[in-house]
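Design request, tokens follow.
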């Protein structure tokens, strides 16, 4: 009778205790693109990561691309500790080249995605050749423009870049006389969307300073867009999921959070007992493993003379 009991206990263990530890991250969502690690809340596969970052990253020929409504950007870095992404795009002006002709993306995210991604407060956007009728200058008179330095970076410094000597002699600078300035530096919070069409601008640059405590010139600024990501909602859910060996994901139909536990998905974590609806997903291999364990236990029980 005892061996039957042992067999029954191992059967119960095999089937009712989730196999979180045997799967874990091996079947997880983490992936790589070039030398960048893609981890929660980001993912390359639908259903993985946080739903706020779905359909956002694509790995094309080992180059990680970030796609939002204003266009595609190359991801230069993802800093998981500071929760930031560094983006670049070929039509952004830098210290060595000024790109006009409205080809630049600017930065516009989908409305629903706004809570999840925002350019950092110490990232400066410099809008170039905006027309006088631009909404940027409306409601301002004379020298009281919305343009100002952001984190110590602004147009007065930017004008000293070699690229400016290439595009023409006129340098309106910050003097608002005959027309608007050729460059207007602004923080993202002040305008929300950097939509070059809406703002009537010909181009833009974006910079951030990795050495904020040191006085640096525009040739030392880093050109690109630094974006902060904020995971909204219950972080306890993902922490609990990962702690039990699962991968955080979401339901591709209703975007609710899911904890992926290898062969089954949990709405809490991988230590929770799967509900009946999950049992159907058990594979033939699982059943076979369970059966083999029973046999082994049965033989063991016989050997031990139970
Ligand atoms: C990743 O590779 C790029 C060149 O492809 C290099 O510039 C960058 O520094 C690398 N980043 C890391 C974190 O190794
Ligand atoms: C778990 O959820 C993910 C994402 O929705 C889905 O791709 C996968 O097929 C699900 N797995 C199971 C076993 O239901
Ligand atoms: C930018 O603004 C224009 C004009 O207001 C609009 O038609 C366009 O859809 C906007 N672009 C994005 C990416 O939102
Ligand atoms: C977050 O989720 C955990 C487990 O899923 C739950 O126990 C907790 O009450 C939730 N917290 C909030 C603030 O919703």
């Amino acid at each position: 009778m005892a061996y039957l009991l042992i067999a029954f206990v191992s059967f119960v263990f095999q089937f009712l205790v989730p196999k979180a530890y045997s799967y874990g991250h091996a079947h997880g969502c983490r992936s790589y693109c070039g030398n960048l690690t893609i981890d929660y809340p980001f993912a390359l596969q639908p259903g993985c990561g946080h739903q706020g970052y779905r359909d956002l990253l694509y790995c094309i020929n080992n180059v990680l691309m970030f796609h939002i409504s204003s266009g595609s950007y190359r991801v230069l870095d993802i800093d998981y500790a500071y929760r930031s992404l560094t983006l670049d795009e070929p039509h952004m002006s830098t210290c060595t080249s000024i790109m006009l002709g409205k080809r630049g993306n600017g930065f516009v995210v989908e409305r629903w995605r706004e809570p999840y991604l925002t350019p950092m407060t110490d990232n400066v956007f410099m809008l170039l050749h905006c027309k006088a009728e631009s909404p940027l200058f409306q409601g301002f008179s004379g020298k009281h423009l919305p343009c100002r330095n952001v984190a110590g970076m602004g147009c007065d410094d930017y004008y000293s870049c070699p690229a400016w000597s290439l595009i023409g002699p006129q340098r309106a600078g910050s003097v608002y006389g005959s027309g608007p300035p050729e460059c207007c530096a602004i923080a993202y919070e002040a305008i929300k969307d950097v939509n070059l069409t809406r703002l009537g601008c010909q181009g833009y640059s974006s910079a951030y300073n990795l050495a904020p405590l040191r006085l640096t010139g525009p040739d030392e600024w880093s050109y690109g867009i630094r974006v902060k990501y904020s995971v909204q909602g219950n972080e306890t859910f993902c922490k609990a999921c990962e702690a039990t060996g699962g991968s955080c994901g979401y339901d591709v139909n209703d975007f609710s959070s899911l904890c992926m536990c290898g062969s089954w998905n949990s709405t809490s974590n991988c230590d929770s007992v799967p509900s009946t609806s999950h049992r159907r997903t058990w594979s033939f291999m699982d059943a076979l493993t369970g059966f083999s364990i029973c046999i082994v236990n049965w033989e063991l029980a016989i050997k031990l003379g139970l």
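Comment from the thread starter after seeing the answer: thanks! The first strand starts at residue 31 and ends at 33.
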